[in-house]
Specification:
The complex is a heterodimer of chains A (159) and B (762).
Chain A lengths: L3 E7 L2 E7 L5 H8 L18 E4 L2 E4 L12 E3 L8 H12 L9 H14 L5 H7 L11 H13 L5
Parallel strand pairs in A: 1-5
Antiparallel strand pairs in A: 1-2, 3-4, 3-5
Helix pairs in contact in A: 2-3, 2-5
Chain B lengths: L11 E7 L5 E7 L8 E2 L31 E2 L5 E7 L2 H9 L2 E6 L25 E10 L3 H4 L2 E13 L7 E7 L4 E6 L4 H12 L6 E4 L15 H13 L3 E4 L2 H7 L2 E13 L5 E13 L10 H8 L9 E10 L13 H19 L3 H8 L8 E2 L5 E2 L4 H12 L1 H9 L7 E13 L3 H6 L9 E7 L5 E5 L8 H13 L6 E4 L17 H28 L7 E3 L2 E3 L4 E3 H10 L13 E6 L7 E13 L6 E11 L6 H21 L30 E5 L16 H4 L1 H12 L9 E2 L3 H22 L1
Parallel strand pairs in B: 1-12, 8-29, 10-11, 14-15, 20-21, 27-28
Antiparallel strand pairs in B: 1-5, 2-4, 2-6, 3-5, 7-15, 8-13, 9-10, 9-12, 13-14, 16-17, 18-26, 19-20, 19-25, 22-23, 23-24, 26-27
The chains are: A alpha+beta (159), B alpha+beta (762).
C-alpha cells in the first residue's frame, strides 16, 4: 500500500512518520507512537474513550485519519501529565470514586478538562451534557459527574 | 495496562473470518493462493480438543463448540478462519480474500417456537432443540387447582450484550526459554481459563501461564472461555512469534457473550386479600447456539425458576424450564444472572395482582414479604434467606420516594401534561455460595473457596496474592483494608497482587458477587495466622510470655516494651537465630476460605423509581431513583455505593435501552452503538442510596456480596413505574427494554380497549 509521509507534533515532540492513508489517528498514537492512554472502545466514534486534542480541539481519534493531522499538534492524556487542570481532575476523580475499571477514564478526563476550560462554573446538567458522548459501563456516571463539579468548585479564577 | 497495550517484539495481529449466515453447512473455505500459510481453519489443527461444557448432567445435551467452525455454522458471527498479518488492518484485508461457501439452512430464532414439533434443529442428533428441559416443583401443588383467584401473564426480557468498555483481547506467545505458553487475557478468572486452555491445547497446565493485566470490566462476559481465545493460542503455538487478537465492538455485539433473553408464561395464584399462594408456568431461556465452557448458561433456567418466589412467602412453585438452542451467539452470565428476569416477572406480577384487586402495590408487598421474625426463611424454592429486614427496606424506600406526593401529582395532572408513575421492586441477591450450592447446580468447576498468600518481607512490608481478579471492584482497597485490620498496620504498607497464574495461588476469579466474601475471608483468616506468628516472634524478642503481648500499629507490645514488625520480619526472614527455638523461618502463609455454611447469604434491597412518560412518543424519563439496600457489613461504603450505582446503570440499560433484536433469518440488527443504545450520563440519574447493615452470620466480618444486586431490580421497578403512569387504562408493560415504541404501542392498545369498553357501556 502506498504510504503517506506526515509530520505531527505529538505531545510537543516532532514526529516524522510514514503511515498508510487509512491509518486512524488512534492507531497512529497507540501503535506508532506507543502512547496507550488513548483507549479504543468502539472505533466508530460513539464511546469517547479515544478522545485526544488536535490543535487543542477535542477529537475522536478513531474517526480521524493520521494523514489528516499532518502539521498539526496532537495531545494525548500522556501529554497532559503536568497540566495543572488535568492534575486537579485526576485528584477529584480519585476522591469521588469516579472510575472502577478505568478504561473510559482517559476520555472522561479529556472531556472534563475541555469543559472546565470553556466553563469554570458548570451546573450538573451542563456536566452531564458534556459527557453525553462518553460511555462508562462501570460507574453509572454519578462519581464522574461529582468529580467534575468538585474540580470546578476548587478552580480559582486565575487557574 | 490493558491487554491491547501489551507490546512484544514481532507481535502480529489476527482478524477472523466470520459467518454471515445464522445456520448452514460449511462447504468450503478457500484460502488465497499467495497467502495460504497466514490463514488458519479448523483443519490446520488436528490436535485441538473440544471442551465439554455445561453442567455435569446426563440430561444436558452436548453442543461441541470448536475453536473455528467445523461442519456447520450456527450463528451470524461464528469464527470460521483466522488471518495473521503485521497489522489488524492488513489481517482484515486478508480475511476479505478468504472465500467461504455455506449451504444455508433455516434459522431457529424464537426459543418458544424452537420447542414446537417440526422446528429446524441445530444439532441433528438431538431429539429437540433443548439443551435441557426440567420441571421444578415444590410445596403444596394442590394449591394450583384449589386457589380462589389466579392471573396469567407473559413476560419477556430481551437479549442484549455485556458491553464491557474494554472488549475482549488475547496476546499469546511461546516462551522458548521457560517452554511455556504465555497468554495475556482479558478475563475475570485466569486460573480457571488456564485449566480450559491447557485442556483444549493438550498442554500440561504448568506450561500455560495466563496473565490478566488491568481488565476493563467483565460483568460475567469475561468469565467464559471463548473459541477465539483458544484459536489465538493455537496459532501462537504454530507461528513462532507473538500474536494478538483484540476484539472490535462489532465482533463484541455479534459474537461475544450475549445475555438475558428470558420468556415467562406464568400464572400466579392468590387470595382475594392479595396473599400470594404460588406461581406456575413455563420459562424459556434462549441460550444461543452453544454452551460456553465451563458451565454454559445452564444456571439461567434453574436460577430464574428458583428466584421466582423472590422475597415473598409462597406455598407452591411449579415451573417447566427449557434451556433452548437457537441460531444466536451463545449466552453467558451477565451481572445478576437470571435474577433480573425472575425479578421482572414476579415484581410485575405483584403489581398486576395489586392492580387487579385494587390494592396499592406497596401494600401488596407488605402483605407478602418475609418478615424479619421469620428469618432464616426457606423459600418454597429452597433458598434460605438468612438475615435482614425486608419490610424495613420497603418502608425506607417508600419514605425516600414519597408515594403520597406522586399520587397527588397524578391526581392533579391536566390533560396534555406528561404522565407520572411510581414503581417498586424488591430483590434478593445470593452471594458467598460455595460447595453446597455449586455442587447442587452440577457445576463443572465448583468455586467453593478462594485462596490468599500473605507474605511479610524482611523490611516488614506485606505482599498479598489472591486468586480473584479485580476488574473494577477495588480489591486493592478492600482486601488491603481487611489485611490491615488483621495485621494492625496501615493499608498503604500492603500490596495486593492478582492476575498472573505464575505468581498467585489458585482461585476461581471474580463473579457471582463472591470476592468480598471468599477472597476477603481468605485474606482475613490467612492474615490472622500471620499475625499470630508475628506475635509469637515479638513475644520471644521481648522476652515476654506470648499471652501477655498484643499487636498494635505495626508493633508487638508488652507491658515493658515493644518491637516493630520490621525487626520481627528481619528475624523471620534473614536472622533465624533470633527466632524461638524450633520455629520455622519465613512469615508467609497460604490459606483458603469458605463460609461455614455454603448455601449462600442474601443481600437484598428495594428499588423505588419515579418516571415521566410522554404519551405522544412513549419516551420514558427517570425523575427520581431511590434504593434501600443491605449487604451486611460494608468493608468500604464508597465501593458499595459505586457497585450499587453502577449496577443500577446496567439495570436501567436492560430495562429501557439495550437490545439485540434478530430478524427471521437470524441476522442480528444491532451491531454498532448506532443501533445498540448505551445509556450515558444524560440518561442515568444519580441514585439516592440508604444502607442498612444486618451482618451475615456465617461469613467473616458479616459481609455479603454486593456486585450484582444493583442490576437485578431496575427493569422491574421501571416497568412497574411506567405501568403505574397508565393505571387508569390498565396498560401492561411486560417486555424489556421499554423502548418508546413498545411503551407507545402498549399504551395505545390499552386506551383503545378502555374506549371500546366505555362505548359498550354507553
Amino acid at each position: 500500500m502506498k504510504m503517506t509521509e506526515i509530520s505531527v507534533r505529538v505531545n510537543g515532540v516532532a514526529m516524522k512518520s510514514s503511515v498508510e492513508p487509512r491509518t486512524s489517528l488512534a492507531d497512529y498514537v497507540r501503535e506508532t507512537c506507543g502512547l496507550t492512554a488513548t483507549h479504543l472502545g468502539c472505533e466508530h466514534g460513539a464511546c469517547g474513550a479515544c478522545t485526544v486534542l488536535v490543535d487543542d480541539v477535542l477529537t475522536r481519534s478513531c474517526l480521524k485519519f493520521a494523514a489528516m493531522c499532518d502539521d498539526r499538534h496532537v495531545t494525548t492524556l500522556e501529554g497532559l501529565a503536568n497540566d495543572p487542570l488535568t492534575d486537579l481532575l485526576r485528584q477529584c476523580f480519585h476522591e469521588s470514586h469516579a472510575l472502577q475499571c478505568g478504561f473510559c477514564t482517559p476520555g472522561m478526563l479529556m472531556a472534563a478538562r475541555d469543559l472546565l476550560r470553556r466553563n469554570m462554573t458548570p451546573d450538573e446538567i451542563t456536566v452531564r451534557n458534556a459527557l453525553a458522548g462518553h460511555i462508562c459501563r462501570c460507574t453509572g456516571y454519578s462519581g464522574i459527574v461529582h468529580a467534575i463539579l468538585l474540580a470546578a468548585s476548587r478552580l480559582k479564577p486565575d487557574d | 495496562m490493558f491487554v491491547a497495550d501489551v507490546r512484544l517484539p514481532g507481535l502480529q495481529d489476527i482478524a477472523f473470518v466470520r459467518s454471515g449466515v445464522a445456520h448452514g453447512r460449511l462447504l468450503s473455505v478457500n484460502k488465497p493462493a499467495d497467502d495460504r500459510e497466514r490463514v488458519f481453519t479448523i483443519d490446520d489443527f488436528d490436535d485441538l480438543n473440544v471442551l465439554e461444557a455445561g453442567p455435569e448432567l446426563e440430561a444436558f445435551r452436548q453442543s461441541p463448540y470448536p475453536a473455528l467452525a467445523s461442519g456447520k455454522v450456527r450463528y451470524v458471527g461464528q469464527a470460521i478462519a483466522a488471518c495473521v498479518a503485521t497489522t489488524r488492518a492488513r489481517a482484515e484485508d486478508l480475511a476479505e480474500r478468504v472465500e467461504v461457501e455455506i449451504d444455508e439452512l433455516p434459522a431457529v430464532v424464537d426459543a418458544v417456537a424452537a420447542m414446537q414439533p417440526g422446528s429446524p434443529r441445530l444439532f441433528e442428533n438431538w431429539a429437540d432443540n433443548a439443551f435441557i428441559a426440567r420441571t421444578i416443583s415444590a410445596g403444596d401443588l394442590n394449591l394450583f387447582s384449589a386457589s380462589p383467584m389466579r392471573l396469567k401473564r407473559r413476560f419477556r426480557m430481551n437479549r442484549h450484550a455485556t458491553v464491557s468498555l474494554e472488549i475482549r483481547g488475547v496476546v499469546a506467545h511461546w516462551d522458548a526459554r521457560l517452554e511455556e505458553l504465555v497468554v495475556h487475557l482479558s478475563t475475570q478468572g485466569g486460573h480457571v481459563m488456564r485449566l480450559g486452555l491447557a485442556r483444549a491445547l493438550g498442554l500440561p497446565e504448568n506450561q500455560v501461564r495466563v496473565i490478566a493485566p488491568d481488565v476493563g470490566g467483565g460483568f460475567g462476559g469475561k468469565n467464559r472461555l471463548l473459541p477465539e481465545e483458544i484459536a489465538v493460542c493455537a496459532i501462537a503455538l504454530k507461528v513462532g512469534h507473538p500474536v494478538r487478537w483484540i476484539e472490535d465492538r462489532r465482533e463484541h455485539l455479534l459474537a461475544s457473550v450475549h445475555c438475558r433473553d428470558h420468556h415467562y408464561d406464568l400464572t400466579v395464584c392468590f387470595e382475594p386479600d392479595g396473599t400470594l399462594l404460588g406461581i406456575e408456568g413455563d420459562v424459556h431461556i434462549d441460550a444461543g447456539a452453544y454452551a460456553l465452557w465451563p458451565t454454559g448458561s445452564f444456571m439461567e433456567a434453574s436460577m430464574a425458576a428458583g428466584n421466582l418466589p423472590g422475597p415473598y412467602r409462597m406455598k407452591a412453585l411449579r415451573v417447566n424450564t427449557f434451556t433452548v438452542a437457537t441460531n444466536k451467539a451463545p449466552m453467558g452470565p451477565y451481572r445478576g444472572v437470571a435474577r433480573p428476569g425472575a425479578c421482572f416477572a414476579i415484581e410485575r406480577m405483584v403489581d398486576e395482582v395489586a392492580q387487579h384487586l385494587g390494592i396499592e402495590p406497596y401494600e401488596m408487598r407488605k402483605r407478602n414479604l418475609v418478615k424479619r421474625t421469620e428469618m432464616p426463611y426457606v423459600t418454597v424454592a429452597g433458598l434460605k434467606l438468612d438475615t435482614g429486614d425486608y419490610h424495613d427496606s420497603l418502608d425506607t424506600a417508600a419514605k425516600m420516594i414519597d408515594i403520597s406526593a406522586i399520587r397527588r401529582r397524578q391526581k392533579e395532572r391536566k390533560p396534555g401534561e406528561p404522565r407520572v408513575g411510581i414503581g417498586f421492586a424488591v430483590y434478593t441477591e445470593q452471594s458467598g455460595h460455595g460447595v453446597v450450592e455449586w455442587s447442587k447446580r452440577k457445576s463443572r468447576v465448583v468455586p467453593g473457596y478462594e485462596s490468599a498468600n500473605v507474605r511479610m518481607l524482611p523490611d516488614g512490608s506485606v505482599n498479598i496474592s489472591v486468586g480473584v481478579q479485580n476488574h473494577g471492584q477495588g480489591h486493592e482497597t478492600t482486601l488491603a483494608q481487611i489485611a490491615a485490620h488483621e495485621l494492625g498496620i496501615d493499608p498503604s504498607q500492603i500490596r495486593i497482587r492478582y492476575g498472573d497464574t505464575a505468581t498467585t495461588p489458585f482461585g476461581f476469579g471474580t463473579f457471582a458477587s463472591r470476592s468480598i466474601v471468599f477472597a476477603g475471608g481468605a485474606v482475613g483468616v490467612t492474615s490472622r495466622r500471620l499475625a499470630e506468628k508475628i506475635r509469637l516472634i515479638g513475644a520471644h524478642l521481648l522476652q515476654a510470655a506470648p499471652e501477655s503481648v498484643r499487636i498494635e500499629n505495626g508493633a508487638v507490645l508488652s507491658d515493658s516494651g515493644s518491637v516493630g514488625f520490621g525487626e520481627i520480619a528481619r528475624a523471620a526472614n534473614i536472622r533465624q537465630e533470633m527466632l524461638p527455638e524450633g520455629m520455622e523461618p519465613l512469615l508467609e502463609f497460604t490459606g483458603t476460605y469458605e463460609p461455614k455454611e455454603s448455601a449462600g447469604v442474601f443481600s437484598y434491597g428495594t428499588h423505588a423509581v419515579v418516571v415521566e412518560v410522554d404519551e405522544a412518543t412513549g419516551g420514558v424519563k427517570i425523575l427520581d431513583y431511590a434504593v434501600s439496600e443491605d449487604c451486611g457489613t460494608m468493608i468500604n461504603p464508597m465501593i458499595v455505593d459505586g457497585q450499587v450505582q453502577g449496577g443500577i446503570s446496567q439495570g436501567i440499560g436492560t430495562g429501557l435501552y439495550e437490545e439485540i433484536p434478530f430478524n427471521a433469518d437470524g441476522q442480528p440488527l444491532a451491531t454498532t452503538f448506532g443501533e445498540y443504545m448505551m445509556p450515558c450520563a444524560t440518561e442515568i440519574p444519580t441514585v439516592r442510596i440508604a444502607h442498612s447493615v444486618t451482618p451475615a452470620l456465617v461469613t467473616e466480618y458479616g459481609v455479603k456480596g454486593v456486585g450484582e444486586g444493583g442490576a437485578i431490580a431496575p427493569p422491574a421497578a421501571l416497568a412497574n413505574a411506567v405501568a403505574d403512569a397508565f393505571r387508569d387504562c390498565k396498560a401492561s408493560f411486560n417486555e424489556t427494554p421499554l423502548t418508546p415504541r413498545r411503551v407507545w404501542e402498549a399504551a395505545q392498545a390499552a386506551m383503545t380497549r378502555m374506549e371500546a369498553a366505555a362505548e359498550t357501556r354507553a
